[in-house]
Structures are given as C-alpha cells and as structure tokens.
Specification:
The chain has 295 residues and is α+β, with helices and mostly antiparallel strands. The protein has helices at 2-9, 56-63, 67-86, 114-126, 133-143, 151-167, 211-233, 255-270, 281-294; strands at residues 16-25, 35-43, 48-52, 101-103, 107-111, 178-185, 188-195, 199-205, 242-248, 274-278. 31% of the residues are buried.
Length: 295
C-alpha cells in the first residue's frame, strides 16, 4: 500500500534517455592531477556528441607556451572518441588513444532537453573548468534569469558595440567582420573580435574597476590572435596579415591600469604581436579604418 502511494506521487521520468562518460586528462602522468577535457554522450535514439570542456582561453592560462602541445593531445583524444561513436560502437568500449587520458564510468540519465540536457548534467557534475553556452543556458532555465557576465567581458562587449556603431556610418560595410568564429581543429575554435581580409584585431577594455580580470581577458585575446596567426601561416593561400590587440584605456587612467597595459605590452613583445592603446571608441574605429585602408 505504501509503495503504491509512493509510486503514484513520484514524478514521471523524462522520455529521453542517454548515457555519457567524462574524459579525463592527466598532463603529468602519475601526479594524480586530472581534469575533464570532454564529455562523450550517446542517446538511446543513436544520437551522439562529443563536447570539449576545456576552452582555448583556459588552456592558455594553464599552460602558456606548452598550449600547442596540450591542444594537440586534447584534439587527438576527442577526435578518437567522436570517431568511436560515429562508427556506432558501444559507449563503454571506447579507450583513450594516448597515455595520460582516462575515461570515466558510463552514467545513464534522463533529460527533458535532449542531448543538450544530458551534457548539462555531465558538465555540472564533472567539468568544473567548462564555462560555455550549455551551462549558461541550463542555469538560466533553472533561475529564469540571465547569468551576469564577468564585468571585464561585459565592458569589453560594450566597447566593441560602440566601435561597431561608429564604423556603421562608413560607406563601406564593416559590420560583417565582427565576432567571427574561426575553427582551429574539429573540436576547437576561437572567436576574433574583428576579422578582416588582412587586418585582424581583438579589443579589450581596461577602463574597468576589476583591472586584474581585465588583464586576464586581454591575455586570452592576445593568445587567440597568436593562434589565428599560426593557423593562417599554415594555410595554402596565405597572405600578408596584420594582428593587433586594441586596448581601451583613458589618458588619465589609474596607475594600476597603466601597469597592466605595460604587462600586456611585454607579453605581446615575446610573441611579436602589436598592442595599441586608444582612449576612446572613436580612436579605435579610426585605427581599424587606417589599418584596413593600409591593407
């Protein structure tokens, strides 16, 4: 009697069923320091997906000059997982192709939001380094609110929009060049703020309260430019390209902001990249126009 009552009161499970495995990476074998670099998921319908949970920005922050090696290993591991699922082999039979990579136990779950919902469950349970769209959308559904972006990123986005608005007044269309996604490998991509035919720029705003976080954002954008340059240098039809990190910084900025600008300049020098400081959105727009005409 009690069991029957409990069954009637229990919520109905979602119809969508899937299984997933977390993919771990241990950079220094034997250290025990592992983190999740991807999730592989397989639905009972046969739908499958492999999601990279370690972003380019995070890799750059963690590994610096060794990022290219780590990125290559991560791509190799995830491509192996994707090929395994595309070949319709059982999820639990996949084995990582390199030492230092490990697959977690197979977890079965239910979802009201298809495979996206399954990935959301997996990420929030195992992949603490993931900061992408799936988690933001999932948490927004739970709270009925948009999650606030980091202040430095929000201020940078606002600066970019102001520069776009200024360039919109030009007779030549520059709007199609903004926020372009560039695929580096099958499971890896970067976003470039302004991607021209021969001039490429990322923008960062140092006129913020949290200058330390703004510096982190600027470093990530600088590394993205470095990755873009490397990719284009290896293209068959490569051409002369210019790459710049444009920093929004007022002339009367606080000393800590000026110090951070010096730091990002020094880092750029080690990579033979250019950092340009501009005090207003108009000056940034003028810089882009000047470089586009020069190209």
């Amino acid at each position: 009697m009690i069991l029957d009552t409990f069954k009637r009161q229990a919520p109905v499970l979602p119809q969508f069923t899937a299984s997933y495995r977390s993919i771990y990476f241990e950079p220094i074998i034997g250290s025990g320091e592992r983190f999740v670099i991807g999730i592989m998921a397989l639905a009972e319908t046969g739908e499958s997906r492999v999601l990279q949970t370690l972003s380019e920005k995070t890799m750059r922050s963690m590994y610096g000059d060794k990022t290219d090696q780590i990125r290559g290993l991560v791509s190799l591991i995830l491509e192996s997982a994707e090929s395994h699922l595309k070949a319709e082999f059982p999820l639990e039979q996949w084995q990582p192709p390199v030492s230092g990579a490990f697959a977690g136990m197979t977890q079965k779950t239910y979802s009201n939001n298809g495979l996206e919902g399954v990935l959301f469950q997996a990420i929030t349970s195992y992949a603490s380094l993931y900061k992408g769209k799936i988690v933001k959308d999932g948490l927004s559904e739970l709270t009925d609110n948009e999650l606030p972006e980091d202040e430095a990123e929000r201020n940078t986005d606002s600066l970019i929009q102001q520069v776009k608005n200024i360039l919109q007044l030009q007779p030549i269309d520059y709007q199609s060049h903004w926020k372009k996604v560039v695929r580096i490998k099958e499971n890896s991509a970067i976003t470039i703020d302004y991607l021209g035919a021969r001039y490429n720029a990322n923008l960062s705003n140092f006129d913020v309260k949290d200058i330390g976080n703004a510096l982190k954002v600027a470093k990530a954008k600088l590394f993205d430019l470095d990755v873009l340059r490397e990719k284009r240098q290896h293209e068959v039809f490569s051409s002369e390209q210019n790459y710049e990190l444009l920093i929004g910084l007022k002339n009367d900025a606080p000393n800590d902001a000026k110090d951070c600008f010096v730091q990002i300049e020094q880092l750029a020098d080690t990579k033979n990249l250019r950092v340009i400081k501009k005090a207003t959105p108009q000056e940034m727009a003028d810089r882009i126009l000047l470089q586009e005409k020069a190209a």
